[in-house]
């Protein structure tokens, strides 16, 4: 039994530290929403006499990475009381959580950082970006009405099952495979959310999750299955032109462009660094990875990682799509890289070739290029936050 795992009867102490650490006012709604995460998480903490000194959540999820399912634990609500800070409490909890993940067969971990530098010391790396698009109402595009299809408005509490299925169908770039409880959590956490549902012949083909904030119309989530759904939902948005001054969408696509607008310079685009990822079980990630070539001559590379089970010389070859992976610390590696650099490359955020140019990898350039060609080139996308 992990000495840092909190019993479920410690929710009140966890909640009190949460309110203080994040300067949040108490409310029945906030308490209820945090309790949902508490009940579904592995909760870690260090008691300081009768109070909680440090705490965090490790929440079990699954993600779809290029049509391969991986277990992923989300780290959230990392906190320490100020009088307990500086003693390494949060660090001990993080290390303990990562060890438990490995023992539980978890391959990946994501988190939302308060400091990118702080979490890099635990092997996490930034791989998710968002593009924030802001358009004034006077600059919205003029669109013709679609000749078929329709849009229906609904409250978030009326979220249809077909929407969940459409999300899952379009989610394959490292985003979360949302369990029913996580959908329910989103509904409970954000009662202000509304839905715009695009239909063609009674079939859901796209949707918006949005909310309004003062003079802003804010799109939280936008999923389309065909050009008609794009047209229908864009038209729906522009029909709010006389009501709101600004229209804002934070897209999980870091390469979102404004070139399809009549006046691309009318939109303000801002790339926003989002969440970080960590490879917890490198062996599993390499063996089940969605490889991009069927054959690879053997490459030997040393991975530097604080997690001892990843900190090895890995010998990898692929023959007709069959992965042959071994650990052999006696081999002289073709090149050496950190787990953070490998995470960027395997997630498609930045290639090994690019990392080589910036001096973040050193070694045999041909072998680096060979391994680089194995990994996906499309950047990952993540909407969810925890």
Automatic annotation (TrEMBL):
Residue span, Eis-like acetyltransferase domain: 174-279
Keyword presence, Transmembrane helix: no
The keyword Transcription appears for this protein: no
SUPFAM superfamilies xref list: Acyl-CoA N-acyltransferases (Nat) (SSF55729), SCP-like (SSF55718)
Molecular function (Gene Ontology), one example: aminoglycoside N-acetyltransferase activity
GO biological process: aminoglycoside antibiotic catabolic process
InterPro entries, sorted: Acetyltransf_17, Acetyltransferase_Eis, Acyl_CoA_acyltransferase, Eis_dom, SCP2_sterol-bd_dom_sf
UniProt keywords, alphabetically: Transferase
Superkingdom per UniProt: Bacteria
Cited PANTHER family: N-ACETYLTRANSFERASE EIS
Protein name: GNAT family N-acetyltransferase
